[in-house]
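in:
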């Protein structure tokens, strides 16, 4: 379709061709066309009759000859790695109402034809207690108006307790929903993640407790609208922490596959992780920070300083199954950006010649489970920290993350081993996370790209640990910390996968993290699994390639974005 349209007093030649809607200014005096603006249909959010504005508040100026086109505008995010998405709008005037109706009809039809994967019905969970307790306000003022503009129907549930979202996803009828959206932080995302994966495996008749089981890929997409105290998953998959940007990714139906790590103990599933499973320093920091929740986000800085000054290392045995070094390396200086070649090639490798996600995932994991014992590598010694990450774990304080070259969807994780070292050397390692220096270029640090790991401590160490914990734990302190655990879980909406273990994690760590005045160094640490303390030390972790999909597209490279695409 093509015709003349007006923006104010200026005439433009507008055309809808294939995947693009563009309009070119017509210079009446010189009888020539210039200043063409082009918007991809993939970036069009909605079309409304009249002169309409949506944000910061909706306003409608009825007009028989006008219509407004809303689309995505990309702007620099300053210090952040990704691009901010903003709602652009252009109000057109037509010579007649008939022409106006033709334009709105054709644009809406083109959206349905060219963007069939956009969601039409979403299940939304809002955590009203997370972060600064603004989850409900963020959704009502920013996300809801955009969903309404895009014609997306939303069923909203404001959670009142921990695990409510997970339980709903596991038990309730989800027929008709295209995706699940969580408004909150990483804890809320973890609830939704466990619910979506658990529901998929239930319906497939698969046992999640078996480490080698071929998990089925989840059909429901997950969307994240950041509103928590930590939004690491959002930052690592979008590049910015911005509710409008995340909402627009959901509306446009972006699809980013994501690897998931399953954590097992004694043939039982403990949790799923998408970012960090960390032992030693990162486990101690989390355990210490849980005692200072009243400090807010500052508790992490306080706990980090205290744990560093404690100068601890822990004995352990790490077995890992290396990934193919010919495919990628954690030190190859590549970055997992939108349209990542490594992840694209991994899709072909993980899912060869098949469109059925269940059989594809099964094929990949069967290959992992059938690897011979000889392929495993063992290292043993004392470690400052042992970390396994399925993504870069970048955040505003660490723009490149724990493992800058980690990939979101290549079916592998990065195992980072930091051996016992001089305190100043370890401080240098920590400091390099905040800069562009290579944190792996240190003699006491090694990193491996892996498909699975096992961690254990010697039986003697294990006995000493539990004796320590038992002697240090008084009945009154146990009851007090149990009440605090339950209260915190209810308040911040973070999810404990094993609800009946809620009080066990503090019990196991009581007396272990007593600050720099500790008379006897603890013999073991705890595991930090995506911000939750695990009640076990000996664990087995396996990476499940592209198990879930997010409404995201990875971090966009600002240099690769065409300046005229969706820009005004």
């Amino acid at each position: 379709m093509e015709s003349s349209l007006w923006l104010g007093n200026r005439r433009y030649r507008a055309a809808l061709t294939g995947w693009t809607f563009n309009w070119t200014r017509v210079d009446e005096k010189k009888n020539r066309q210039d200043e063409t603006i082009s918007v991809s249909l993939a970036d069009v959010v909605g079309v409304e009759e009249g002169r309409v504005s949506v944000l910061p508040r909706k306003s409608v100026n009825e007009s028989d000859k006008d219509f407004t086109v809303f689309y995505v505008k990309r702007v620099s995010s300053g210090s952040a790695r990704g691009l901010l998405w903003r709602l652009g709008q252009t109000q057109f005037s037509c010579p007649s109402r008939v022409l106006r109706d033709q334009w709105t009809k054709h644009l809406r039809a083109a959206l349905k034809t060219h963007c069939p994967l956009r969601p039409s019905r979403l299940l939304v969970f809002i955590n009203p207690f997370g972060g600064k307790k603004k989850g409900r306000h963020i959704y009502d003022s920013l996300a809801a108006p955009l969903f309404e503009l895009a014609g997306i129907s939303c069923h909203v549930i404001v959670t009142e307790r921990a695990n409510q979202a997970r339980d709903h996803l596991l038990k309730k009828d989800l027929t008709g929903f295209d995706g699940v959206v969580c408004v909150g932080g990483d804890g809320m995302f973890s609830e939704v993640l466990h619910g979506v994966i658990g529901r998929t495996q239930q319906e497939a008749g698969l046992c999640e407790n078996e480490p080698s089981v071929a998990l089925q890929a989840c059909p429901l997409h997950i969307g994240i609208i950041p509103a928590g105290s930590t939004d690491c998953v959002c930052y690592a998959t979008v590049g910015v922490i911005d509710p409008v940007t995340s909402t627009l990714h959901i509306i446009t139906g972006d699809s980013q596959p994501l690897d998931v790590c399953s954590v097992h103990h004694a043939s039982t599933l403990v949790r799923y992780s998408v970012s960090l499973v960390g032992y030693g320093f990162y486990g101690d920091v989390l355990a210490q920070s849980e005692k200072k929740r009243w400090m807010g986000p500052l508790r992490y800085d306080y706990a980090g300083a205290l744990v560093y000054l404690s100068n601890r290392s822990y004995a352990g045995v790490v077995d890992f199954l290396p990934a193919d070094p010919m495919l990628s390396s954690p030190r190859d200086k590549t970055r997992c950006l939108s349209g990542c070649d490594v992840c694209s090639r991994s899709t072909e490798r993980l899912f060869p010649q098949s469109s059925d996600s269940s059989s594809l995932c099964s094929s990949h994991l069967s290959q992992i489970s059938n690897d011979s014992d000889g392929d495993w590598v063992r290292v043993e010694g004392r470690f400052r920290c042992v970390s396994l990450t399925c993504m870069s774990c970048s955040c505003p304080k660490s723009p490149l993350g724990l493992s800058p070259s980690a990939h979101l969807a290549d079916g592998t994780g990065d195992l980072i081993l930091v051996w016992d070292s001089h305190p100043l050397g370890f401080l240098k390692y920590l400091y390099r996370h905040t800069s562009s220096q290579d944190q792996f270029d240190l003699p006491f640090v090694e990193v491996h790209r892996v498909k699975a790991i096992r961690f254990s401590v010697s039986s003697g160490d294990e006995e000493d640990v539990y004796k320590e914990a038992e002697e240090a734990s008084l009945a009154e302190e146990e009851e007090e910390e149990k009440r605090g655990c339950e209260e915190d879980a209810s308040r911040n909406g973070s999810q404990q996968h094993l609800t009946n273990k809620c009080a066990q994690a503090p019990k196991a760590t009581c007396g272990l993290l007593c600050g720099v005045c500790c008379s006897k160094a603890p013999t073991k640490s705890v595991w930090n699994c995506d911000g939750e303390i695990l009640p076990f030390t000996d664990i087995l972790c396996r990476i499940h390639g592209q198990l879930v999909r997010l409404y995201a597209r990875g971090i966009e490279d600002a240099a690769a974005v065409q300046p005229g695409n969706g820009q005004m």
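note: Residues 390 and 413 are 5 Å apart (CA to CA).
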